[in-house]
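Hi team,

Filling in the usual template for the complex we talked about on Friday. All components are listed, including any nucleic acid strands or ligand strings, so the model treats them as one assembly.

SUBMITTER: L.P.
PURPOSE: interface mapping
COMPONENTS: four
RESIDUES: 418
SEQUENCES:
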Amino acid sequence: MKDTKRDILDAAEQLFAAKGPHATSLRQIIGRAKVNLAAVHYHFGSKESLLQSVMARRLVPLNAERLALLEEQERACGRRAVPLQKVLAALVGPALRLSRNPKKGGAVFMQLLGRCFMEPDLKIQAMLDRQLQEVASRFIPALQRALPKLPEEDFFWRIHFLVGAMAHTMADAERLRTFSGGRCNPDDTEAMIEQLVNFLSAGFKAKSR
Amino acid sequence: MKDTKRDILDAAEQLFAAKGPHATSLRQIIGRAKVNLAAVHYHFGSKESLLQSVMARRLVPLNAERLALLEEQERACGRRAVPLQKVLAALVGPALRLSRNPKKGGAVFMQLLGRCFMEPDLKIQAMLDRQLQEVASRFIPALQRALPKLPEEDFFWRIHFLVGAMAHTMADAERLRTFSGGRCNPDDTEAMIEQLVNFLSAGFKAKSR
DNA sequence: AATTTTTTCAAACGTTCGTATGAATCAGGT
DNA sequence: ACCTGATTCATACGAACGTTTGAAAAAATT
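RESULT (copied from the run log):
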């Protein structure tokens, strides 16, 4: 039996990720999904809410996993602050790990998520903000508790740099393969997570100037 | 006297930066520049080469400044390696500083540059690669000399994170103002450069795992 | 002043976009 | 077998897109 809705979501995810939501037309999507053009509006209402559905399908479980990991660490630490590395790993780990799971969109969705971070379109921005608000509201205090001596100004700048490094890694890790002349392998996700967490935690721990 | 070519470049720069090149139409550009639609094709040939011209106008002097700064540091250091902070400052400083110069596009162009870094479009990617190749070929050896003990794999990962943090800071520093609740001020470019260089150099110096 | 070259302009080209419509087809319950 | 609601389909709509054209206007050259 044929699951039109899922076919559309899969095709849209791939094309949005590869070319950006704005540069992808519904006709390309329905061509890949092998469904009728009107099916998109029947099942999703509009292109914009199709994008929203594509994102939500992966982001909802992803964010749940992030929060669960963080809570697990907090339970393990009692009333002590969770170490910085653990907080960062809970934040970036599930996202980067998702890329190794082809059944859940694999690298494709990660790329799309990275793209949406950088997308100028205000509708997309608002949609993403909504999806990430809960994660932010839990992780920022956790990070602050792990870095009690860091001035707030430095702290927020470094959050900003974290987002940039993470988004770029999500959107275009593949680029690094050729750029590094094959020395870096983006398919080795655990190594990638370790590299990113290691880099970020050193950056966060830099002494304020 | 009216300088059509410059009016088009200015308007295109602003709109490309604000909405992304793909989401900006020629009709929006000529509306802001108050010129005729055909003038774009008369002066630039196509939308794509208009974007190329917009980028080149700022990037050529910007990259020259980066290389000059690096060479100055190398001269000052004799045959010793240039310290990491100095290399990073020569790389990100001119770009971030450009944002304080409204006569040269100010924050607007920086935002566009950040966007183009993340742009999926292959034409744009190729154009940017061309513009940045010389800078990359000079700065990568300089960075490697400043970090002689860092394994190459780690080195290239960290270059990747650097690009992400820098691009995000260029594209959307403004977002940090509200996100930080006013604690960070993206208009203070020197502070921004210092924050970024400080963060990056700590990340680069993190011990390999 | 006449001629040539460069620049501007209004109008249109063909294409593609997201969306809408109404009929055809299918599935499940009665 | 019949009906009913859900889904698919071909087709069309108006709008916007990048690009082209050929003539008018302006500037430069002679």
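MY TAKE: Residues 4, 35-39, 42-43 of chain B lie near DNA strand C (CB under 10 Å from a C1'). The radius of gyration of chain B is 18 Å.

Thanks, L.
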